[in-house]
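Raw record, unedited: Globin
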Amino acid sequence: MDPTTPYDTIGGEPVLARLCDRFYGLMAETPQFAELRALHPEDLQGSRDKLFMFLSGWLGGPDLFVQQFGHPRLRARHMPFAIGTRERDQWVACMLLAMEEAGIAEPMRERLLQSFFKTADFMRNQPG
């Protein structure tokens, strides 16, 4: 079968789960992501699960987030958190490392990185 969605192309649920696990693992253990980590609750499991559910649908797989929580309303959900260019850049850098470690190959990794950057930039609600 020819993969038709990014979800299929990256390897579906197992690779997406590995990506989300690595993303939050890196965020928790890497000093350069300290400001990003500080925006999250002490227990990262809920954040990890929501990212997994969101990315599943965003990548063209099962729309788990919408089924459980309704429309993502990403910007509104992130408004309570001070997100500037530093937090955006940490999120994108953390996701890039997570994609590399999860085994997401080029050119899909670059395609996703561009989309992630645009989305992360849209979440900014601080000038710097």
